[in-house]
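[job 4471] stage=fold_predict status=RUNNING
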Amino acid sequence: MTLRDQIMSDLKDAMRAKDSVRVSTLRLIQAAVKDRDIAARAADRCEGCDVGEIQAILQKLVKQREESADTYESAGRLDLAERERREAEIVREYLPEPMGEGEIAEAARQVVDELDAAGLKDMGKCMGALKQRYTGRMDFSRAGETVKTLLQNRA
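[job 4471] inference complete, writing structure tokens
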């Protein structure tokens, strides 16, 4: 079963169970994916977005939910913060297991070595390679710090 099919199936189950938070979150995911599909068609890529792009969308949705929860919490709206965190957990169910700190460091080291990166000028090239390989699994802010440290040590 593809990721799209899984989301659709879970949406139907949530509708039957009358889980309003889950239904609204899954509809949000579907809308975001559909928007990306439309953009892909406009760019003459008829097949729509692939699994990697869907995972990137899901990561973005999780990040947005976490930021909103922090904002609501600082404003004293704990009920809204809790709902945002619940939505983030629902979205995370569709993402693969995130990489740990050690895995990120190893992947960054491997990419820097493969590309024979010599300094900070190669940062974009290294991050592009990481995003291409590990979309959906890697926290790229942590990876960026690791790559930057590696590249500074090589310069």
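[job 4471] summary: The chain is about 75% helix and 0% strand.
[job 4471] exit 0
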